[in-house]
Design brief:
By secondary structure, the chain is mainly alpha-helical. The protein has one domain (34-184): Cytochrome c-like domain (Cytochrome Bc1 Complex, Chain D, domain 2, Orthogonal Bundle). It has helices at 2-17, 64-72, 77-83, 85-97, 101-104, 129-138, 149-152, 160-172, and strands at 26-28, 34-36. Strands 1-2 form a two-stranded antiparallel sheet. The N and C termini lie far apart (70 Å).
C-alpha cells in the first residue's frame, strides 16, 4: 500500500512538472514585466485609452520580427519597408483588407480619422513604435476600435505581425518635416 501511495505521489509530481521544459512558459518578474523562459524580458504594453495593461502574450505563431519587437519596442520591418517599396506592399495589403482606409484614407493621409503620415500626432506616444502598436492593438477613446486579436479575444482580427507590417508601411509613407524620427534611424 505504501509503495502504491509513493507511486501515485510521484505521478502527480511528474504531471505537475511536465510543462517545466516548455519554451513558451512565462513568469512575472518582481517589476511585473513578463519574461519567457527561453527569451529576454517582454515589454509591457498599455492601453492608449486608460493606461491599463494590454493582454498581449507571446505565441507559438510569433515571427522572429514579433519576438524582436516584444523585446526592443522597435519594429524590425520599418527599415526594410522604407528601403523596399515592394516589401512594404504586405503592410499596405493588411491596411486595405481591414478597412483602415475608411478612416485614415487610401495612403494613410487622413479622412475622417487623422493622417498617419505627418508630424501631427493625436496621441504623442505614437511617435514611437511601441506607442503606435499599443494604439492600434487596444484602440482609443476617439473612435479607433481594438484591432489586436488577443486584446479583443477575436481570432478574426490582427496578429502582432500584421500590426507591425501595417505600422512599417505607415512609417514608409511618412511625409513630415522632422526627419529625425526614431524609426528613420
Amino acid at each position: 500500500m505504501k509503495s502504491l501511495k509513493s507511486l501515485m505521489m510521484a505521478g502527480i509530481l511528474a504531471a505537475g512538472l511536465g510543462g517545466c521544459g516548455s519554451d513558451n512558459q512565462t513568469s512575472t518578474a518582481g517589476d511585473g514585466a513578463e519574461k519567457t523562459t527561453k527569451d529576454a524580458p517582454m515589454l509591457k504594453f498599455v492601453s492608449t485609452k486608460d493606461g491599463s495593461p494590454l493582454p498581449i502574450k507571446p505565441t507559438d505563431k510569433d515571427t522572429p520580427e514579433v519576438k524582436e519587437f516584444y523585446k526592443t519596442g522597435k519594429n524590425p520591418y520599418t527599415k526594410k519597408f522604407i528601403s523596399d517599396p515592394e516589401a512594404a506592399k504586405t503592410g499596405r495589403k493588411v491596411f486595405n483588407m481591414y478597412s483602415c482606409t475608411q478612416c485614415h484614407g487610401g495612403n494613410a493621409g487622413g479622412q475622417t480619422g487623422p493622417s498617419l503620415t505627418d508630424d501631427n500626432w493625436v496621441y504623442p506616444k505614437n511617435v514611437t513604435d511601441k506607442g503606435m502598436f499599443e494604439t492600434i492593438s487596444g484602440g482609443t477613446n476617439a473612435g479607433m476600435p481594438i484591432w489586436h486579436l488577443q486584446v479583443a479575444g477575436n481570432p478574426e482580427l490582427l496578429s502582432s505581425d500584421d500590426i507591425l507590417r501595417v505600422m512599417a508601411w505607415i512609417r514608409s509613407m511618412y511625409a513630415g518635416a522632422d526627419q529625425t524620427k526614431e524609426w528613420l534611424k
